[in-house]
Backbone:
């Protein structure tokens, strides 16, 4: 989960300010350490994962990832995002059918367990990989999905935290990496200046990886609560709503409704709706969600999927039962992306904007005559609409405060930096 222990002292204030929200579960004694030790069963071979009611040892995990790439070479390849402080591998599989070098496909990214003790999502991601691969050529729906896009899945973003007591067990897993750093507080923060701090090794590897791709939609899976947490984490929704807040609410509602077909009581321990704007729950700096949304124009959602961080292994199939349809549906949400959202700057070849950054004016060229373009701030407020009659278009930004703005035309969004 995304909470921070420092907030313990603020608990009384938080409760008073937002009585409808459940207090953070980790404000209470840690869950993982109090879990009965026999509740965790490990799989020390790939075969022992067959029923999906165990956690893999580290070696089993690596073997599973390798075996998928060997079994399904046409649609699955294994990537190494990087290594952890203690030298464990941070892995991802790329699942994509009908690979054609000259055809652009949207890219989707799932990543789990950046907090090492929040391991429910770890096994959910492994099982999702298995499902997608085994369904290719058998399920028309999933075959179409795998052909349509690149699906990247990183089941374990913080292996040192998960295997703190050794590769043979997830018992005693911790939230932090081996340097006791919270990886979900140390991404470059577009709003609070956290970028000035040292970026941990695991995060630098993740930054390099996502920078080398063009992910349009992603999710980061956590545990310790049950709620869909959409951006921003750095602000309350009244301070600064995400430009696509309405879309997020629709996506979250579809996710929650799908899960509740299996269990009506699921995803209710923070809000009745099952979702919240992140900052309305509590504000955090340096999280990956805001980093992805802001710096990569990638719409990323934080999924808190189990009240317990380290659920008893025999309950893992139950969580899969709740989640599997919704996890697949969420990948398909790439088809519903708002037209102007999530477009990487490198894709916006039509519009050329210069100088950028600017302190006064920008010239916009390359937009077709007759088209319309609009300027937004990062809160999603439209500041002006412009018809392109004679190119190039000149925009005067002198009256605007310093910051980042989006110029949106049908199907594209280009950042303009005012300094
Ligand atoms: Zn977490």
Residues:
């Amino acid at each position: 989960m995304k909470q921070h222990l420092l907030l313990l002292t603020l608990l009384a204030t938080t409760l008073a300010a937002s009585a409808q929200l459940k207090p953070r579960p980790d404000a209470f004694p840690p869950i993982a350490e109090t879990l009965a030790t026999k509740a965790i069963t490990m799989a020390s071979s790939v075969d022992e994962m067959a029923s999906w009611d165990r956690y893999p040892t580290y070696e089993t995990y690596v073997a599973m990832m390798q075996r998928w790439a060997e079994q399904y070479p046409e649609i699955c390849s294994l990537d190494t995002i990087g290594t952890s402080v203690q030298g464990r591998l941070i892995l991802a599989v790329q699942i994509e059918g009908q690979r054609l070098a000259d055809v652009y496909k949207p890219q989707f990214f799932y990543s789990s367990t950046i907090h090492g003790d929040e391991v429910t999502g770890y096994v959910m991601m492994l099982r999702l990989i298995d499902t997608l691969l085994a369904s290719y050529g058998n399920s028309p729906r999933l075959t179409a999905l795998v052909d349509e896009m690149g699906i990247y899945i990183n089941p374990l973003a913080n292996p040192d935290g998960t295997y703190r007591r050794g590769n043979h067990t997830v018992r005693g897993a911790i939230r932090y990496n081996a340097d006791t750093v919270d990886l979900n507080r140390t991404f470059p923060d577009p709003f609070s200046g956290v970028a000035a701090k040292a970026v941990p090794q695991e995060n630098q590897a993740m930054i390099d990886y996502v920078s080398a791709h063009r992910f349009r939609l992603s999710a980061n899976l956590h545990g310790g609560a049950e709620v869909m947490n959409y951006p921003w984490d750095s602000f309350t929704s009244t301070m600064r709503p995400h430009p696509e807040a309405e879309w997020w609410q629709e996506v979250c509602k579809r996710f929650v409704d799908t899960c509740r077909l299996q269990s009506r009581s699921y995803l209710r321990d923070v809000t009745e709706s099952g979702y919240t704007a992140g900052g309305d729950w509590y504000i955090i700096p340096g999280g990956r969600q805001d980093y992805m949304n802001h710096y990569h124009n990638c719409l990323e959602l934080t999924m808190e999927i189990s009240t317990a961080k380290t659920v008893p292994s025999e309950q893992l199939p139950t969580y899969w039962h709740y989640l599997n349809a919704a996890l697949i549906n969420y990948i398909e949400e790439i088809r519903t992306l708002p037209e102007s959202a999530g477009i990487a700057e490198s894709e916006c070849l039509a519009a050329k904007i210069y100088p950028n950054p600017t302190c006064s004016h920008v010239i916009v060229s390359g937009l077709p005559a007759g088209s319309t373009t609009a300027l937004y701030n990062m809160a999603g407020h439209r500041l002006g609409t412009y018809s392109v009659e004679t190119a190039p278009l000149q925009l005067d930004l002198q009256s605007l405060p310093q910051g980042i703005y989006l110029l949106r035309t049908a199907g594209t969004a280009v950042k303009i930096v005012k300094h």
